[in-house]
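A common beginner's mistake is to predict each chain separately and then try to dock the pieces by hand. The better habit, illustrated here, is to supply every component at once so that their relative placement is modeled jointly.
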Amino acid sequence: MEDNQEEVLEIFTQDGVLITTAPATYIHYLNNVGTLLIVEYPNSNLTRCIEWKPLDLTIDSDVQDQEWTVVSTVERRRTYSGSLPVDVNRSKHLKINMNDIKSFRVSHKNQKLTFRDGKGDNVCSFIFQHGNCDGLIAVLKGILKTIVSRRDKHVYCILDDIKNPERQQLDKSFAELNLFQEQSSAYVWKFVKNFPNRPYEATMEAFSKITDIVYRGPEHRLMDSEVHNILHRSLEAIENNTTTHSHDEYELIAHVPRLPALKEYPRGRPLSFEQWKALQDSEGQVEDVEAVKLVIFRGGISSNVRKEVWKYLLDYYRWKCSHAEQQNLIKQRNEEYFIMKLQWRSMTKIQEDNFTDYRERKSLIEKDVNRTDRTLDYFAGDNNPNLQVLYDILMTYAMYNFDLGYVQGMSDLLSPILYLMNNEVEAFWCFVGFMNKVSSNFDMDQAGMKEQLQHLHTLTAFYDPEFANYLYKHDSANMFFCFRWLLVWFKRELSQQDVMRLWEVLWTDLPCQNFHLLICVAILDTEKNILMENNYGFTEILKHINDLSGNIDISTVISKAEGMYNQIVDAEHLTDAVRLIIGLPILGNTSIVDSKEASPDISDLTTNGDTDEVSYENALTHSFL
Amino acid sequence: MAKTYDYLFKLLLIGDSGVGKTCVLFRFSEDAFNTTFISTIGEDTAGQERFRTITTAYYRGAMGIMLVYDITNEKSFENIKNWIRNIEENASSDVEKMLLGNKCELEDKRQVSKERGEQLAVEYGIKFIETSAKASIRVEEAFFTLARDIKANTEKKLVCIWIIFVFLINLYIIVNHCE
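With all components supplied together, the output reads:
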């Protein structure tokens, strides 16, 4: 087929088709727009090929900027250099023999078409920029025998070519046996399909048809590839698992730009009493708030001044207030607290009996107070008075913010604050400040948590596409295994001392408000090899992550997260979606904006790779209701 | 990490907050009881309703589910119906289920009679057992019963897979023989 003069029959042609995945030989075409053809070579035993030729020699810069694609064999990726071969003739066009294609998948509202080989790996994918691929699918259905995959309605499996000699032989042998009315392989396949629904009936029905057949002693030969295929497919269908194997037959290539190297950001010394006093003027006002925050971000706060500084960080005290104004404020807050406390304290029995909402949240608080940090001396033992204070503050908070009320996890957030303040009113107002920062974690519809998990996935996919792809293939792209980390800001993972250090660092909002997500990315980066080497699935990942509790070195993690933040900020291919998360202004010049990326929709969680997208989305709908 | 076991089952314990899910699990796994258990978050499973969208993620792949209520808490029993509906929507249909009335040592505070528990279990066609994680009553029995049922269920499936395999091998032999 090297001969350009060979007779060619173009069955289908479409312009404006962007190529996003291709075999290694055609790496230079990636992210270019061109013409897609389905071509038949009548002189070469009716070979059909998928062909694609570029539009012209210039690279459309818009297209080049397009978001990279996550592929399964990232370790084999190559970076697209941008050079194009000068000589573009037919023999250099992308050409893939149709016989190598075993299925194709339609996605992105019928705008994307991906061809896959017998192992389910992507051979090439195309985005139809003008319209959709419906026309092509109609043509393919016309020339190939296809069935819709039972696992994914967007996947069309190509049944083996009827002209295949092996297939003919097999059909013949079955015909001679006269076992089944239908085509043999189709029969077996049908049997396999029925099996999960009615195993006994399907099996017995099939058995009944072969009981009459007498066969002589078994001859062990190499398994017929057709039967092998059927067996393979059947086992796949029974397990109903999504299996994707990486292999060496094709290299899946994508444009995956590299991040700058990870630099070290050693931790600094904690804000000392002397530093703190030096930063206040004689009136007690803090002029350079950013300087204070920077020191805290770099090294946290010394324990001898932590109690006072937390009141500022949690908006109980005002940075710009004089001592006198502060005293006035404290007095007001004090009164306000006791008014609210009195409101629930004065609830009569009858009132309570007639107030289900109140009763339920009271019972929830009681339950949780009894199991909050009881291993710490501060809350240990029966009838510990600090438990009563914990309870009173949570009850008062429920009156302060009745819409939110009490949600599990809030007692965890209060515990270190109360421990440090050791004062009911101060702890309450500091807790209010903390809750103001994280109240979306406790939304009734969990929208705040979902958004963070989604952002965490976007960051992970940007920082480490290979790992994101792994998670995606193991039903874990929803990042649910980080739920506890985010809900209570690592409270359950760290010691009381460590969690206090982490929280004060995060409260500075430096270098960005979502720095806690980078903490997650940093821990995951440390653990990803274990997860991937052991081929952990959703349950094992969850267990592994939960078991990290007590084994996280928070200083190392913070400094690594800072390094990663800077790597991301300096990345040349930084996208608006990531900019938004890490608090950088949006440039709005990302071309071919992925609709998923633009909308803060749940589907954003989808990685850029499109393998098993539908099963992923199903899983997500599943999980998110 | 070499794991030595004959069977590995993924079980979930679900039910309202504070019915004793973690304590039941702890009694089974450590044969101990601790009154000051921490509330469970992000593992199977947080009981509070608003976490339900997250906890349902854990249903996937579960082979057995223990539905736990507190016999001294009427509400937790009433909510079992909601949990079951939730399972039906999110877990695979062949998951083994079992109803557990926990805290049965607190007879004087009982709000849900044993008969009502039995009746509900019959209604859903699942097994029922009253347990006490604190007094160590029938917790092991509950887990082993559930595990046995799952094992029986799994073996039934394995037999089917074996049959189909034998069938296909025979078919292959026939095909080759007649070529």
